[in-house]
Amino acid sequence: MDEQIKKILDKSFMLAAILVVGILVFFVGQIVLQNKSADLQNQNQITVSGEGKVYAKPDVALISLGVTAQAVTVADVTKSGTDKMNAVIDAVKKLGVDEKDIQTTNYSLTPNYNYTQNAGRIFQGYTLEQDVQVKIRDFTKVGDILAKATSVGANLVGDLQFTIDNPEQFKEQARAKAIAQAKANAENLAKESGIGLGKIINIFENSYNSSPVMYSSAKAMGAGVMDSAPVPTVQPGQQEIDVTINLTYKIN
């Protein structure tokens, strides 16, 4: 009886082993078949690229204006910081900047401590930092806005940069140039190599917009520093919109 059970178990293990080997062979075969199919597909297609560039004048200047305030209590530092920022925003508005073009980008309240060897950490009060990004559409007022904002209390001035408010229209022009160049490259390649171009089966796009920085002022300037300095001359230059297109063709 034991011998018979042993034979049955041996046969079951053998069948299981054969089944496992069969499954492994099947999956390995599928992988090899897929790789061969992918290689064959890659052999029957080509990819060409084209680049399109468009140069456009910026129509918007962006500048970050901020204020800092220090006080012992939260209420006092909040009032001081708010009063300073309200004065900056009011001055900017009076120079023609619309309210929708002023956006708060940072509001940071942090405690201040002084460290001594004897007493350790001693609480000193709070520092409040507020920043707004101002979008300036009239470039003739950029210098005046910088000077006025700092004169009324802005002591954190970020990098001024020029950009295009709606770059998509120029990107479309650059894209059209890139596609035309890619197609011309494909036709030339087909003509020189003797292959036949089929339909386009894949398109990949990569775009880049340059945004040059024109002016950078020092952080934590004291109020009124810009009053004694010359107003910066604005030179917005031009912005480059660069689009690269990759076209993949089937080969007939």
Tell me the layout of helices and strands.
Blueprint: H1 2-43, E1 45-56, E2 60-71, H2 74-94, E3 102-116, E4 120-136, H3 142-151, E5 156-157, E6 160-163, H4 168-193, E7 197-209, E8 213-215, H5 225-228, E9 239-251
Antiparallel strand pairs: 1-9, 2-4, 2-5, 2-6, 3-4, 6-8, 7-9
Helix pairs in contact: 2-3
Structure description:
The radius of gyration is 34 Å and the shape is flat. The protein has 252 residues and is an alpha+beta fold. The chain folds into two domains: 47-55 and 169-208 and 245-251, no CATH class; 58-165 and 213-237, Alpha-Beta Plaits. The chain has helices at residues 2-43, 74-94, 142-151, 168-193, 225-228; strands at 45-56, 60-71, 102-116, 120-136, 156-157, 160-163, 197-209, 213-215, 239-251. It is built from five helices and nine strands. The longest helix is centred in the first third of the chain and has 42 residues, at 2-43. α2 runs antiparallel to α3.
Which features characterize this protein?
252 residues; alpha+beta; Alpha-Beta Plaits; 2 domains; six-stranded antiparallel β-sheet; 5 helices; 41% helix; 36% strand; flat
**What does the main sheet amount to?**
6 strands, antiparallel
Distance between the termini: 70 Å
Bin the strand percentage: 35-45%
- How many helical elements? 5
The percent range for helix content is: 40-55%
**Cα shape:** flat
Radius of gyration, whole Å: 34 Å
* Total tally of structural domains: 2
Question: How many beta-strand runs?
Answer: 9
* Order of secondary-structure elements: HEEHEEHEEHEEHE
CATH H level, superfamily name of the largest domain: Protein of unknown function (DUF541), domain 2
CATH architecture designation of the largest domain: 2-Layer Sandwich
Question: Which oligomeric state applies?
Answer: single chain
Uncertain runs: 216-226
Query: On the 0-100 scale, what is the average pLDDT?
Result: 82
Computed structural class:
alpha+beta
CATH class value of the largest domain: Alpha Beta
If you consult CATH, what is the topology of the largest domain?
A: Alpha-Beta Plaits
